[in-house]
Amino acid sequence: MNDAPSLNRRRxxxxxxxxxxxxxxxxxxxxxxxxxxxxxNGTRPLVTFAQKRPMMLITTRPPHLETPFSVFNESLxxxxxxxxxxxxxxxxxxxxxxSEYRLSLKGLVERPLSISLEQLKQLGPAxxxxxxxxxxxxxxxxxxxxxxxxxxxxxxxxxxxFTGLPLRTLLEHAGVKAxxxxxxxxxxxxxxxxxxxxxxxxxxxxxxxSPEPMLAWAMNGEELPFLNGYPIKLIVPGYFATYWVKHLNxxxxxxxxxxxxxxxxxxxxxxxxxxxxxxxKSATHTRPIGEMKVRSFITSLKTGDTVxxxxxxxxxxxxxxxxxxxxxxxxxxxxxxxxxxxTLSQDMxxxxxxxxxxxxxxxxxxxxxxxxxxxxxxxxxxxxLATWNSSGYSRNVIEALDLxxx
Length: 406
Ligand SMILES: Nc1nc2c(c(=O)[nH]1)N[C@H]1C(S)=C(S)[C@@H](COP(=O)(O)O)O[C@H]1N2
Ligand SMILES: [Mo]
Known about the structure:
Blueprint: H1 4-15, E1 28-36, E2 43-48, E3 55-59, E4 64-66, H2 71-74, E5 103-107, E6 113-115, H3 117-122, E7 127-134, E8 157-166, H4 167-174, E9 182-187, E10 200-204, H5 205-208, E11 214-219, E12 222-223, E13 233-235, E14 248-254, H6 261-264, E15 268-270, E16 286-288, E17 295-298, E18 306-307, E19 312-320, E20 326-332, E21 340-341, E22 343-344, E23 354-361, E24 366-376, E25 399-405
Parallel strand pairs: 5-14, 18-25
Antiparallel strand pairs: 1-2, 2-3, 3-4, 5-6, 7-8, 8-11, 9-10, 9-14, 11-12, 11-13, 15-16, 17-19, 19-23, 20-21, 20-24, 22-23, 24-25
Bound molecules: ligand MTE and molybdenum atom.
């Protein structure tokens, strides 16, 4: 890509007051418009940031914006202007000159590199892949008992078609040394205070050299939106978004297990099969969060909606897992005693949202609860009861929608 779009982008961000200082990050609030959350936090304002349509505001600085859930029923690819935004550190880049951008690769490689965007794109053939990106804390706000952290609804996820260079092409170009154990990744955002640890993530060398991780520069056929990691974001299909480092510019190959705070103390889950503890208890042994668990949602209805008693109701929704692919999605209207199979739509790849559809009839009038449950190709199935961990990570309980048949 040439320089023109990035220059336009810089002006665009300046125009919205995003460019000069971090403090200038002020969203334009769409007044009078609030989105319901289904837990005790009440409503959320819808706000507009640069390149984004009205999004649900979690925090302003750094920007943390959730996708309104209705977007997931509009298209299987989450549009760039509706894709969620999350940062851990408050000093985020506000202007990036693509012509000055360099990606550095150092540490245990034969030939350390510092390359431009153009050079990166010339290193090998570009690849494309559709993948779900989901925050570890997506749906955390539904944890019971409640947990610390942003009270997220179900909108900290999205499905996009990414274009970029396989990470392993870059690593092989530089020549990884035999004693390599992990690879670390850092972007251009920084802590506000000197004592706050930097946001650095690490992947085991085998994962880093596997086919899927990608240095992506485009999303749904367009440059990455600024707030989604322009100009380069690391894509780790199947893995939670904490590893998908945005504004990526520093990669290092190391001979040990990385001990930075965002690996050693944060983004960790109980080291057991359910990634859970008894409610209210903290785990004695933890490990870094990894692949996503299987999940499914009904997108065509929302809690409180009215359906016709006896008549057909068209249902549709989405399902995804950590990359084995979706085997089946079933619904139940009797608390899970009987399940009705749904039809899976076209497969966009094992890392993508899988659409499901079915027709369902509410048998009697009155309140009815619809459950949706996905099974993955590796035999994983959503649990009937919510598991709990103190960070509210990797929630994947069977979703329930309360409807009224009339
Ligand atoms: N540079 C950088 N990359 C980051 C983060 C961050 O704080 N800084 N947060 C991670 C987390 S926790 C999430 S959920 C995703 C959010 O990506 P998005 O804003 O494109 O949706 O970015 C990940 N990559
Ligand atoms: Mo996240």
